Amino acid sequence: MLGHKKEIFKFSGRSHSVKGLMSIIIGSVSLITLIVLSIISSLSKGNGGLIIGVIGILLFVFTIVGFILGIKGCREKEIYYTAPIVGMVMNGFLSILFFALYMVGLII
Questions:
Q1: How confident is the model at residue 3 (pLDDT cuts 50, 70, 90)?
Q2: 49-93 pLDDT, tens per residue?
Q3: What SS3 class is residue 16?
Q4: What are the angstrom distances between the C-alpha of 101 and each of 38, 43, 56, 72?
Q5: Beta-strand relationship, 79-80 and 15-16
Q6: What single-letter DSSP state applies at residue 79?
Q7: Which of 90, 83, 64, 88 is nearest to 17 (CA)?
Q8: What does the angle CA 64 – CA 67 – CA 72 come to, to the nearest 5 degrees?
Q9: Are 27 and 68 in contact (CB under 8 A)?
Q10: Does the structure show a pLDDT above 80 at 40?
Q11: Which sign, positive or negative, has the C-alpha torsion 8, 9, 13, 17?
Q12: Nearest to 74 by CA among 90, 95, 88
């Protein structure tokens, strides 16, 4: 009786990296929070106050932590490398964006 039951074959012992998944979650939360802070800041016409600035700086640190988790996730053995690489790219891009945003804020 061939072909009646669908069999699942797993040829390798690979699994998803928890650190890589955490890196993606950190990047996603940072991106959503950046969008929300930008909307709040634009609604207040650029006078968001100290709280928005502090949250932004904490998000910058948060993205650096996410980038480091992505790097540590890539160093693990026998994993799928998609999650750590996506997390590193996302957090790296957001870190550069936050840094550029703060440099522009210092100049202006």
A1: low
A2: 788 888 989 999 999 999 999 999 888 887 888 889 999 999 999
A3: strand
A4: 11, 18, 10, 27
A5: parallel
A6: E
A7: 83
A8: 125
A9: no
A10: yes
A11: negative
A12: 88
